[in-house]
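Course assignment 3, question 2. Fill in each field.
Student: A.L.
Task: Predict the tertiary structure for the chain below.
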Amino acid sequence: MFRVRKRVLGDIINGNPVFVGAPSTSVQGSGYETFYSKHAGRAKAVYVGANDGMLHAFDATSGLEMFAYVPNALIPGLNRLTSPNTGISHIWMAR
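Answer field:
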């Protein structure tokens, strides 16, 4: 009953992937040493928003998805993405 999709992940249109890894060692400031120590082993990940309404996090080494997050503000409109009768291939989810 849903629209047929070729892939599980929604299209990434105008999305800017962001790489996040360990904090920089060149930053200084009050409390930064504590922050650095706490997050030095942080997993390397790539984050990107997709046209499925989600922010996706991918392991930067394996490429496997770590998680996907749907912001509360987008939840009311997510049903539009499943409609087989939209007649359009993309629905901009921004409010």
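Instructor remarks: The radius of gyration is 18 Å. The mean pLDDT is 82.
Grade: pending
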